[in-house]
Design a protein that fits this description.
The chain is α+β, with helices and mostly antiparallel strands and 333 residues long. It folds into two domains: 176 residues, 2-Layer Sandwich (Ribosomal Protein S5, domain 2), CATH 3.30.230.10; 116 residues, 2-Layer Sandwich (Alpha-Beta Plaits), CATH 3.30.70. It is built from seven helices and 14 strands. The strands form two sheets. Strands 2, 3, 4, 5, 7, 8, 9, 10, 11, 12, 13 and 14 form a twelve-stranded mixed β-sheet that branches. Helix 1 packs parallel to helix 2. The chain is globular. The protein starts with 29 loop residues before the first strand and ends in a 10-residue tail after the last strand.
């Protein structure tokens, strides 16, 4: 397939309107090659700064208008010769004070209880991305981005594989998932359609503090709740902001926040905990479960803190910053 809009990270609007299944999985695939050095890839999280729901397509997919940025908070993929997938859940590693949930190490994807909510086998986006580009590899996936956090972890992993394979085709990315096109482009962008139309914006370095609650939120359930709220209002979308502007920090609001709180009421507790810790007003990342505030950790009074405690539960605090578009998914040597 031909690429759309030039190499990843370039200027100009990129469009893809393809929403098909993966190609024939029986097609021949190209291995890395015995004796080849390991490829170490970074898969940066995406943060949805703002999100407006603008309608619904005839096929039921929701249309949006969002600003997204790439963060320096990332999964790591190590690709070697072979065929298979192993997952190391770094985000569940216990800390020295014992506050984080136990469950670390290495195991086959999907094994319980080590890999909750991380799809295994051919359903994993890493495996699907390899098939999409006709490649084969043994992958060790180090998960730092929790599943169900609203940070596009699986999409970021898939995009890293596409970049490694030299694929910058947004049609291929869109077949894998609605967030994969932005994760492939990276940097900062306005994202419309169902996520497949990516318009790069000038990169601006910004700093954020995230809280990752000890649970995820199901995206499909949030969208269903949003539909129910809209239906109860007579079919009107009521946006929490006046629309997109291009100045850094001026495009705010998330039309999914109310629905996410309906689906998972515990989100309110973690929102309030982050607000109390930082003195800032948190915003929900996409459909959740992550809350974020803008600013450096030191300025927000949380420098040196890596967890928030609510009752007998702990959520991870992550101080992060935005990244410019990446030309490839290779980790710096």
């Amino acid at each position: 397939m031909t690429g759309i809009g030039g190499p990843a990270g370039g200027q100009g609007k990129r469009r893809s309107h393809v929403a098909q299944a993966d190609g024939d999985s029986s097609a021949s695939t190209e291995p890395i090659g015995a004796g080849a050095p390991a490829a170490v890839l970074l898969a940066p999280a995406k943060l949805t700064i703002s999100l407006a729901l603008t309608g619904t397509r005839a096929d039921g997919y929701h249309l949006l208008d969002a600003e997204m940025v790439t963060l320096d908070f990332a999964d790591t993929l190590v690709l070697t010769d072979g065929d298979g997938l192993e997952v190391s859940l770094e985000h569940l590693r216990p800390r020295g004070d014992g506050t984080a949930a136990a469950g670390s190490g290495l195991a086959s994807a999907g094994s319980a209880p080590l890999a909750p909510r991380v799809p295994g086998g051919d359903d994993n986006l890493v495996r699907r991305a390899l098939r999409a580009v006709g490649r084969r590899a043994h992958v060790v996936l180090v998960k730092r981005i929790p599943p169900g956090a609203g940070l596009g972890g699986g999409s970021a992993d898939a995009a890293a594989v596409l970049r490694w394979a030299g694929c910058h085709d947004l049609e291929v990315a869109a077949r894998l998932g609605a967030d994969v096109p932005f994760c492939l482009v990276g940097g900062r962008a306005r994202v419309t359609g169902i996520g497949e139309v990516v318009e790069p914006l000038p990169s601006v370095e910004r700093h954020f503090v995230l809280v990752l609650p000890p649970f995820g939120v199901d995206t499909a359930s949030v969208y269903r709740a949003a539909d129910a709220l809209v239906s109860a209002r007579g079919g009107r979308w009521e946006h929490k902001h006046d629309g997109p502007t291009r100045g850094a920090g001026t495009w705010v609001g998330n039309d999914l926040e109310e629905a996410a709180l309906v689906v998972e009421p515990r989100l309110a507790i973690w929102r309030d905990a982050l607000a109390a810790a930082t003195g800032a007003t948190p915003r929900l990342a996409g459909s959740g479960s992550t809350w974020f505030v803008e600013g450096r950790a030191a300025d927000l009074g949380v420098a040196g803190l890596d967890v928030l405690t609510v009752g007998n539960e702990t959520g991870r605090l992550v101080a992060t910053r935005t990244l410019p578009p990446a030309d490839d998914g290779a980790a710096p040597g």
